[in-house]
Amino acid sequence: xxxxxxxxxxxxxxxxxxxxxxxxxxxxxxxxxxxxxxxxxxxxxxxxxxxxxxxxxxxxxxxxxxxxxxxxxxxxxxxxxxxxxxxxxxxxxxxxxxxxxxxxxxxxxxxxxxxxxxxxxxxxxxxxxxxxxxxxx
Length: 137
Hints:
Elements: E1 6-13, H1 18-35, E2 44-45, E3 51-52, E4 60-65, H2 67-79, E5 86-88, H3 97-105, E6 114-122, H4 123-129, E7 134-135
Parallel strand pairs: 1-4
Antiparallel strand pairs: 1-6, 2-3, 4-7, 5-6
Helix pairs in contact: 2-4
Protein backbone atom coordinates (compact mmCIF):
# COMPACT_ATOMS: atom_id res chain seq x y z
CA UNK A 1 0.00 0.00 0.00
CA UNK A 2 1.33 3.43 -0.95
CA UNK A 3 1.87 5.88 1.91
CA UNK A 4 1.32 9.56 1.20
CA UNK A 5 2.97 12.46 3.02
CA UNK A 6 -0.10 14.59 2.43
CA UNK A 7 -3.82 14.16 2.97
CA UNK A 8 -6.83 15.36 1.00
CA UNK A 9 -9.92 15.71 3.16
CA UNK A 10 -13.42 17.09 2.86
CA UNK A 11 -15.35 18.16 5.95
CA UNK A 12 -19.14 18.35 5.65
CA UNK A 13 -21.66 19.75 8.10
CA UNK A 14 -23.49 16.80 9.64
CA UNK A 15 -27.03 18.10 9.04
CA UNK A 16 -26.86 18.27 5.23
CA UNK A 17 -29.22 16.26 3.04
CA UNK A 18 -27.62 13.48 0.97
CA UNK A 19 -27.83 15.46 -2.28
CA UNK A 20 -26.20 18.44 -0.54
CA UNK A 21 -23.32 16.30 0.77
CA UNK A 22 -22.62 14.98 -2.70
CA UNK A 23 -22.91 18.42 -4.32
CA UNK A 24 -20.68 20.12 -1.74
CA UNK A 25 -18.05 17.37 -1.99
CA UNK A 26 -17.90 17.67 -5.78
CA UNK A 27 -17.49 21.43 -5.65
CA UNK A 28 -14.86 21.35 -2.90
CA UNK A 29 -12.60 18.75 -4.49
CA UNK A 30 -12.61 20.75 -7.72
CA UNK A 31 -10.94 23.56 -5.75
CA UNK A 32 -8.24 21.23 -4.43
CA UNK A 33 -7.62 19.88 -7.95
CA UNK A 34 -7.29 23.40 -9.33
CA UNK A 35 -4.91 24.58 -6.62
CA UNK A 36 -2.71 21.48 -6.71
CA UNK A 37 -2.71 19.96 -10.21
CA UNK A 38 0.28 17.79 -9.26
CA UNK A 39 -2.17 15.69 -7.21
CA UNK A 40 -3.82 14.54 -10.43
CA UNK A 41 -2.68 11.13 -11.65
CA UNK A 42 -2.39 9.81 -15.19
CA UNK A 43 -5.35 9.23 -17.54
CA UNK A 44 -7.15 5.89 -17.38
CA UNK A 45 -7.93 3.49 -20.22
CA UNK A 46 -9.97 0.31 -20.27
CA UNK A 47 -9.00 -2.94 -21.98
CA UNK A 48 -10.68 -1.77 -25.20
CA UNK A 49 -8.52 1.37 -25.32
CA UNK A 50 -11.29 3.80 -24.36
CA UNK A 51 -9.62 6.71 -22.58
CA UNK A 52 -10.92 8.34 -19.39
CA UNK A 53 -9.91 11.49 -17.56
CA UNK A 54 -7.34 11.34 -14.77
CA UNK A 55 -8.33 11.70 -11.13
CA UNK A 56 -6.52 12.35 -7.87
CA UNK A 57 -3.58 10.00 -7.38
CA UNK A 58 -4.33 9.59 -3.67
CA UNK A 59 -7.46 8.94 -1.60
CA UNK A 60 -9.87 11.69 -0.60
CA UNK A 61 -11.22 11.20 2.91
CA UNK A 62 -14.65 12.62 3.76
CA UNK A 63 -15.50 13.70 7.31
CA UNK A 64 -18.53 15.21 8.98
CA UNK A 65 -19.00 17.46 11.95
CA UNK A 66 -21.18 20.09 13.53
CA UNK A 67 -21.30 23.69 12.38
CA UNK A 68 -18.94 24.47 15.27
CA UNK A 69 -16.51 21.78 14.09
CA UNK A 70 -16.46 23.37 10.63
CA UNK A 71 -15.88 26.85 12.06
CA UNK A 72 -12.99 25.55 14.15
CA UNK A 73 -11.46 23.62 11.24
CA UNK A 74 -11.81 26.71 9.02
CA UNK A 75 -9.92 28.82 11.56
CA UNK A 76 -7.24 26.17 12.08
CA UNK A 77 -6.62 25.82 8.34
CA UNK A 78 -6.33 29.58 7.85
CA UNK A 79 -4.09 29.90 10.93
CA UNK A 80 -1.74 27.38 9.29
CA UNK A 81 -1.68 29.43 6.11
CA UNK A 82 -3.49 26.85 4.00
CA UNK A 83 -5.68 27.97 1.11
CA UNK A 84 -8.94 26.06 1.22
CA UNK A 85 -12.14 25.87 -0.80
CA UNK A 86 -15.32 26.53 1.17
CA UNK A 87 -19.00 26.00 0.47
CA UNK A 88 -21.47 28.14 2.38
CA UNK A 89 -25.18 27.71 3.01
CA UNK A 90 -25.92 30.59 0.63
CA UNK A 91 -24.45 28.66 -2.32
CA UNK A 92 -27.42 26.28 -2.26
CA UNK A 93 -29.51 29.23 -3.48
CA UNK A 94 -27.31 30.52 -6.29
CA UNK A 95 -26.98 29.16 -9.77
CA UNK A 96 -23.63 30.24 -11.17
CA UNK A 97 -20.04 30.98 -10.29
CA UNK A 98 -20.40 34.77 -10.28
CA UNK A 99 -23.33 34.62 -7.86
CA UNK A 100 -21.48 32.05 -5.72
CA UNK A 101 -18.47 34.34 -5.35
CA UNK A 102 -20.71 37.35 -4.60
CA UNK A 103 -22.57 35.37 -1.92
CA UNK A 104 -19.31 34.48 -0.14
CA UNK A 105 -17.91 38.01 -0.51
CA UNK A 106 -21.03 39.47 1.17
CA UNK A 107 -20.35 37.71 4.50
CA UNK A 108 -17.48 38.42 6.93
CA UNK A 109 -15.21 35.41 7.59
CA UNK A 110 -16.39 34.88 11.18
CA UNK A 111 -20.05 34.84 10.09
CA UNK A 112 -19.77 32.37 7.20
CA UNK A 113 -22.45 29.66 7.41
CA UNK A 114 -20.15 26.83 6.34
CA UNK A 115 -21.69 23.74 4.79
CA UNK A 116 -18.30 22.27 3.97
CA UNK A 117 -14.63 22.82 3.35
CA UNK A 118 -11.75 20.84 1.92
CA UNK A 119 -8.11 20.80 2.84
CA UNK A 120 -4.90 19.41 1.41
CA UNK A 121 -1.64 19.50 3.28
CA UNK A 122 0.82 17.53 5.38
CA UNK A 123 -0.92 14.63 7.12
CA UNK A 124 -0.22 15.90 10.65
CA UNK A 125 -1.51 19.39 9.85
CA UNK A 126 -4.70 18.06 8.25
CA UNK A 127 -5.28 15.73 11.22
CA UNK A 128 -4.98 18.69 13.61
CA UNK A 129 -7.28 20.84 11.48
CA UNK A 130 -9.94 18.11 11.47
CA UNK A 131 -9.68 17.24 15.16
CA UNK A 132 -13.21 16.65 16.45
CA UNK A 133 -14.61 15.57 13.05
CA UNK A 134 -15.71 12.02 12.35
CA UNK A 135 -15.08 9.96 9.25
CA UNK A 136 -18.27 10.25 7.17
CA UNK A 137 -20.54 7.20 7.24
